[in-house]
Amino acid sequence: MPQPEAKLVPFPKAPASQPTRSPRDPRLDVFRGLALTMIFINHVPGNPYENYTNRNFGFSDAAEAFFMLSGMAAGLAYSGRFMPAQRAAKGLWAAIQPLWSRSWTLYMTQIFLTAWAIAIFAGGALWFGVPDMVTKINMAKVFGETAETLVGLPLLGHQLGYVNILPAYSVLLLTAPIAIMIGLRSPALMMGLSVALWFFTGLYRWNLPNFPNPGGWFFNPFAWQILFVAGLMTGLCKRQGKQFIPYKPVLFWGCTAFLVFVVAWMKIAPLGSFMNSLMLSMGRAGAPFHLVAHDKTFVTLPRMLHILALTYVMSHAGVVVRLCKQRWTEPFAMMGRQGLLVFSAGTLMSLTAQVAMAAADQPEWMGWTLPLVGIGAMLFIAWTAENISRRPAKADGVIAAAPTPSYDDLRALSQGSPRA
Questions:
Q1: CA distances to 17, 172, 275, 350 from 100, in Å
Q2: How crowded is the C-beta side of 199, counted as CA atoms within 13 Å?
Q3: Within a domain: residue 398?
Q4: Rounded to 5°, angle at Cα 102 from 96 and 106
Q5: Where are the annotated segments for Disordered (predicted)?
Q6: pTM for this prediction
Q7: pLDDT digits (tens, 9 = 90+) for 208-221
């Protein structure tokens, strides 16, 4: 008996404007997690582990890595919305809004962390017999010039020590749409504009003002933008399947040699004395200070070259890719994926650890244990957040969709013999 022909009803195609996601680069998450770990360790002064973070082996530290990696993440996550097809389909505001929304989130996080930092140090002064805590980390103005400081805090003109990295990042996300649109046309042009802004910022000491204190922001956004933009262009190009700075053997080994030379500069006393004297002489001879100094606020040339060289080597060293895919690096990757949450928790725990060590009669044992406890807590927080995000959404009053039938199911039905 002839059987009816089995015909399959085609499923609707996905909208053409839906962007496709490229596989997540494990290096980005692993290094973000490492940077967050080192920031936490460095923010608990007096612990033995701070002698082994990256700042002891180069001019840059975890803060420079934080800005580079944040730029890369922004380029990967947000640049696709600025592509011509996406802009034509959804409009420019749909591309800008996520960046500005993230900037607002960072601002609110900054206010939250600042409020808790004041509470933690004030609590140490009130209940743990360390009254000088309210004079540390730029906190004296909070209690000495309260009215002025209450104006400065929400305007970001007054920033506490160890709670001052997010304001610059928030400002840079506000300006990121312009950088992305220029970068899509010419990454080299955008990088050139960034270098020019960095140079003139150092030359004329441009900065956003503090209030009520004199001076400017510790993380000067006019200077630190060069690292963010370098990362942004790297992520933007990677999103397009390109490389911002492709592998070149001469450049790779030149950067490697420079990194080794910097370690020697820092660890070999005669060489360090000679190089520091040479830099000082160049400054006295009229060289701009941001080309010969080691200032952090203006991301001076030695610090900038070091983090750029380190990033280039880490980006193109095959062993790094293999290491970041190993199971033992997953805890760092997990923290990197939950970056803002882990950073916020680490900040509050590091400030609490500072109070505890100041109040203790013998804080040496705390220096060994508190950083480990804090890192363990950061891992637990990241793990919890990962598990919450992976939970399937519960259907509340909604009829669940029936499972999609397979080809064999449809063929069996067409032959009149449904499968059991």
A1: 22, 10, 43, 29
A2: 7
A3: no
A4: 145
A5: 1-25
A6: 0.87
A7: 999 999 999 999 99
